[in-house]
């Protein structure tokens, strides 16, 4: 496996021999590989090039096939759905998927694949976006590594989210572009480091804060880096998201099994109180497995939330 980092003063590539390199790197990475000049004592490779990437962290890894690893990516167990979608739900999700694929086709009529990136935060909406986009790319015989994944890492993030992002990188064979800071800061740095990127896929839905009036293709505000924001999931509901995940056996972050419905950072997110189990609900059979969660104060999984307007009830107010 190869591991690329671009730091404040040089382009760094770490070689990890336990996995073969299979993902095609960015054009700047190709240039770097042609200019390798020195191998240091810690097995790092320094690239002597005039390109200076001050903010960018690139993590490029070879990954196993999605169908073989789908159980491992979530929580190690098969994904089950106690709230089975109806036939009407299935038709609605099929229509949602077809519209998303049509949106991707329209996008590629406007932008080259090398001009695109998708934003991923490990949440359920972005997970659906990732799976839809990767399925579409396979359908069109486009490499999953051609559209990178943008992840904004926080020192306050849940370890489960960071781990899930890492597993998605391996699982879907995507190239990770990682920054720290806010989304605006990340896009600013990315625009400097990867000026070819002109549009970013985002997993926003119109029920999210400040997203009520977004258009499917929405330019960023004037004080943001100039870029087109691509929103293929705007019309999806909370339950659409979970129906898609269950109907397609899409791996998801394990926090959703524990009552989290909208995940931010550790300091501002708790399990949704709407999903707290009562004593009457908490009845596990003697043969129940370890994920029963029927303990005092336990929570039902995220997809059992009945009132979608309470999706963010587990988000704490800003201080």
From TrEMBL:
Domain Phosphoadenosine phosphosulphate reductase: 116-181, 196-271
Enzyme Commission number, as recorded: 2.7.7.2
Pathway: Cofactor biosynthesis; FAD biosynthesis; FAD from FMN: step 1/1
Methyltransferase among keywords: no
Reactions the enzyme catalyzes: FMN + ATP + H(+) = FAD + diphosphate
Keywords noted in UniProt: ATP-binding, FAD, Flavoprotein, FMN, Nucleotide-binding, Nucleotidyltransferase, Transferase
UniProt KW Chloroplast keyword: no
An example Gene Ontology biological process: FAD biosynthetic process
GO molecular function: ATP binding; FMN adenylyltransferase activity
Record protein name field: FAD synthase
